Amino acid sequence: MQAEKQVVPICTPDSAYAEDVFTVIQEDGSTDAAKDPKLTDETVVELYQAMVRTRAIDLRLEKLQRQGRVGFHVGSLGEEACILASAAALRPTDWIFPCYREFGALLYRGFPLQAYLDNMYGNAVDQVQGRQMPDHYTGKAYHFGSVSSPIGTQLTQAVGFAWAAKLKAQDVVTGVYFGDGATSSSEFHCAMNFAGVFKIPTVFLCRNNRWAISVPAERQTASKDFASKAEAYGMPGVRCDGNDALATYRTVREAVERAARGEGPTLIELVTYRMGGHSTSDDPRAYRVDQEVEGWQQSDPILRLRTHLVHRGLWDDAQEETWQSQIETELKSCIEQAEARPKPPIASLFHDVLERQPWHLKEQQEACEAGPRPEANHG
Amino acid sequence: MQAEKQVVPICTPDSAYAEDVFTVIQEDGSTDAAKDPKLTDETVVELYQAMVRTRAIDLRLEKLQRQGRVGFHVGSLGEEACILASAAALRPTDWIFPCYREFGALLYRGFPLQAYLDNMYGNAVDQVQGRQMPDHYTGKAYHFGSVSSPIGTQLTQAVGFAWAAKLKAQDVVTGVYFGDGATSSSEFHCAMNFAGVFKIPTVFLCRNNRWAISVPAERQTASKDFASKAEAYGMPGVRCDGNDALATYRTVREAVERAARGEGPTLIELVTYRMGGHSTSDDPRAYRVDQEVEGWQQSDPILRLRTHLVHRGLWDDAQEETWQSQIETELKSCIEQAEARPKPPIASLFHDVLERQPWHLKEQQEACEAGPRPEANHG
Amino acid sequence: MGQMNMVQAINSCLRSEMTRNEDVIVLGEDVGKVGGVFRVTQGLYEEFGEDRVIDTPLAEGGIVGAAIGMALYGLRPVPEIQFADFIYPAFDQLVSEAAKYRYRSGGEYTVPMVVRTPVGGGIRGGHYHSQSPESLFIHTAGLKVVCPSNPFDAKGLLAAAIRDDDPVLFFEPKRVYRAVKMEVPSSDYTVPIGQAKVVRAGTDVTVVAWGAMLFEALAAADEAQAQGEVSSEVIDLRTLWPIDIDTIVESVKKTGRLVVVHEAPKACGFGAEIIQLVTEKAFLHFEAPPVRVTGWDTPFPYTLENEYLPLKHRIVPALIETARF
Amino acid sequence: MGQMNMVQAINSCLRSEMTRNEDVIVLGEDVGKVGGVFRVTQGLYEEFGEDRVIDTPLAEGGIVGAAIGMALYGLRPVPEIQFADFIYPAFDQLVSEAAKYRYRSGGEYTVPMVVRTPVGGGIRGGHYHSQSPESLFIHTAGLKVVCPSNPFDAKGLLAAAIRDDDPVLFFEPKRVYRAVKMEVPSSDYTVPIGQAKVVRAGTDVTVVAWGAMLFEALAAADEAQAQGEVSSEVIDLRTLWPIDIDTIVESVKKTGRLVVVHEAPKACGFGAEIIQLVTEKAFLHFEAPPVRVTGWDTPFPYTLENEYLPLKHRIVPALIETARF
Ligand SMILES: Cc1ncc(C[n+]2csc(CCOP(=O)(O)OP(=O)(O)O)c2C)c(N)n1
Ligand SMILES: Cc1ncc(C[n+]2csc(CCOP(=O)(O)OP(=O)(O)O)c2C)c(N)n1
Ligand SMILES: [Mg+2]
Ligand SMILES: [Mg+2]
After folding, report:
1. In this complex, do D88 and C91 lie within 8 Å of one another by their Cβ atoms?
2. Does the predicted TM-score (pTM) go above 0.95?
């Protein structure tokens, strides 16, 4: 990476994305004062560092998966601004309902990297006891939900959660992440509709990364964009440059404040791009051209924020190097730990189905524990 | 009913419905030439007659239900224009996917009243063999679907049906009926979205009758109206006076033509009012004020079209009387027939589950036929 | 104390639970002003206000999804699904989410929610107002399933369900709603989840039933006694899952015979499961093949509904034949 | 003829059915350009074009609802649900609509649709990429349910399903997708729906299995023979519903013993139904209690997946114990 002043183009959208996207960071790293969220030096550096860390973790996990050391990973390459800056804009008292690409947001809130890696390895220390696939973490203490795979289900839950807070007159906003594909789901419709009717303090964070596995955004909807779907539910919709950390921060923050004031939900379309495969199971070359990827790489969200930092004199090559090597050290140690830990015990299979273990699961646990072992277990 | 010239106000909407509704019939029965669909005398009289007939049947069925002779009825009082004029505007080659209030549309297409009443009585002659509740008819020969109770399920099916026709390059449009409440369903979202993306020749006929059982329209959505939901799916949305038969005809016809030209779907909000209870099981006085009902009664869709007929010199009291008595005669005979007919045989329970009766249903049929009879059967 | 039917008993329970704990809220289609299409929530809107008795848009997935979110927050939502037949739009939220939250989060999150919904036939509802989908939810690990047969149990079980920290499907036999009256305390009490009840002692054959069919089983037991001198022990299951297997096994060990009655279709219905659980624990005690008397493997019909339901006329011969096997 | 794995066999079937009948169309998420996440539909988009191999928006309810509409029109749609775990948003359309159309319309309308979806564990998919929801659909009158265990049957059964006039749930055991190769004719043929197959003859105990567990049952049969001199007769069910009960009953009449193996949770799983059907027809032939070897009554786990699945190590003792009972 070059720390010299450079020009990073504003997100290079194809024609479908060309209009009216809210942008703050200019090509040279400067900002439009009227739009700038005016983050402190500390906050903006922290945000940048979190984005860099998220990417480093992503890249490492992809490698571990290829080496067969981790079973699966679903990453956020290219979506670091839209994920981290939105997380930063939510207040610590607000709750995040994740899709599955937001481990960066969880870590941003202080969730230990070690705990995240224990989840990736599904070991005995994993909070979810190796019961779920990698990247299906949970972080209640961090005001962060529980990842599940079915697309969209978190949306109505995020609305119900914020609704509960509203009924209790507690100042809680929920921020819920989902993809462009998820806007086609039933859950999106139910969640947006309920949120609109009951003026629920939920901020809908649509990561429009252009792809739903192999299906392009224009196959999800004939509407002119995703933000404009808000009108059908009587709420405002905003299109925001999701590769621009400052634009994302500002847009999300305003929606959070609006929600907290009791003015109801907002739909935010964060225009970004999934630079990697859908997950480690996917090879995107089967359905999209390199050119498209290369185009978006030029407005890499990390480069864009870095240009801004450099413009403000807050970051240089030396700092970058130190930070990268700090991340490497931390990652190395956490991976070692996670790999050294044993698998969860058999008993873990049979608990937490219900609050108290019913007789049939007690019997099944006994049978399983007593029985012969399978030839091979994963892990 | 008065056949003298009278003033019938244009649908008396409360404030929520006040704006931009497409209307053709003026208070004095005249029309705005630019908007008038210019129906022939014959067509408009036929349409009026069908509306009157529909109402007479509704009223009789309500009575029969109160007398315990029919199990249930879900009627269309006040919605005759929106149902009949839309059915009239669809071409005979187009297919209707009904909600559950559209027996009038089925009869308009020539389905025998006798067959409808056999369905109401669930007797042995009923096409569906008394398997479903009253008002769950089917009319394939009339290009009319099969009524089921779950809200919204017909919507995606109507889209799939029209899509199939489109794939086969056959000139078929589907018209699908649903209520304001149904716009909250998952099915509405899926259907509108698929129709938009694939430019399916479906006309979405939203009977906004203001109520979903006891839930008012403003509890279904925070959007300014239902028509404007179309934008989220990249299709046009139209608000039309659903108590104005000519406005409805014109609006639906244009959408049908548009669909047939390959220009895709249209959402039509037909602004009307459910003048009766939700069904014979409902007492609307528990949740709405008489004033509201009375207000809407003044723009009764039948009165409005009649005023237009009188204005055109096409209808008078004598004709009305003859027509009413014709309906009565027909109804009386059909009811007598339907009541005289036996219940379906036990065998009818065990067929049509699958194409060929599998062994277990054969055994179950034998057991049922051989077994003792229950103390009482309905019917 | 006073005579109540099941509608009144459930209403009384909701009222007392909502008074006891302001985290209890009710939501669903038509539950507010009109008090539900069966009037089970009548008066709650007036008493607790529109924030706690919420008429929702017409979307079961939204109702249950939002209720799960409320439960995650710490409320105790009691969503109503107007008819069990309309629970399918919420199926994903129930099966993929409510049932799995505790397990998948390692116990971090729980969903203390009670989904109330009327089940069963007997009101001339045809395909879509008559279904009994309990086995779909019993098959789904992580849910409790309850179905009371009478007003007293309905009130006590619903109170227990609302205070329970697991998601509960609370099936209300609509045929019983107004058909049975009994003494029900106006004070609050619970009937524990997970306990069946022997409601008629007998020696020749064990009959397991629940909900509306319990009364058919009882009537059949009387008739089998009169007609064939067969002594039937009738068990009201009350909680379907987790099942109180001990009570059933104990009875079968005594009678050696088992008949299970349910309205749902036979194939993969709960009857097969109950019988196989008993087989696993007491096979050698069977003196006759265990028998199911159930709805047929067809959609639920309208006109011939009484031919479809496993009413007394079909239970009596099953009892006599099993006893005489 | 040629060696094919199951992915290739299903692909070959789709290709030949689409060639044979232009009313056959494929739709679903990612089925087009990329050929499905398991590559089952690979090449079809290029061969038949985007009108007949349709990438849809992300909405299973929309996919199945639209497919039903297409089938009503007269097409033979073959929607793909990416994983059976994601079929629940389409549950209402399947259970309330597809299953009931013929019955509720008095035979006027039919839904010749085949819903293809991968089922089962063995790919480290955790809760949501491993489920086997067959019993939910067997419980629903009006659906056929098929689950082949090998490439030859997969091709033949899928062809039969596509030509069938009833809605068919076609469950593809993803663990088998690329694990087994065998000779599969490149020409088209059908394997009739509703016929099980005895794939290993034996005298001591009958084992019923399907899909991926068939291979575990076979391996267990060999091991039980070697370890305990138990002779197992293994039946590959192939069609789950309507079930070929005769083949099973005939076998049980010979062996007197029955073990059913399935991946789905035990409670209200298909195992209980199969056993009770045999009980109803051949109770007196049981020389030992019939036994289930199934997934546990928990969500499907990740790390300990092989402890969850009813693999050989759990089937062998069941065979030996049952035989020695
Ligand atoms: C209900 C459901 N259907 C299908 C899938 C399989 N699936 C997983 S991710 C995905 C695409 C999601 O795309 P999008 O919403 O745009 O999110 P992104 O992955 O781009 O962040 C699909 C189809 C699923 N997880 N859940
Ligand atoms: C999925 C589902 N949920 C609930 C019901 C019960 N129900 C029947 S009609 C109705 C209201 C429908 O309102 P709307 O869509 O406005 O149609 P209208 O009756 O006014 O014509 C409800 C809630 C149902 N039939 N299906
Ligand atoms: Mg995406
Ligand atoms: Mg309405």
Report:
1. yes
2. yes
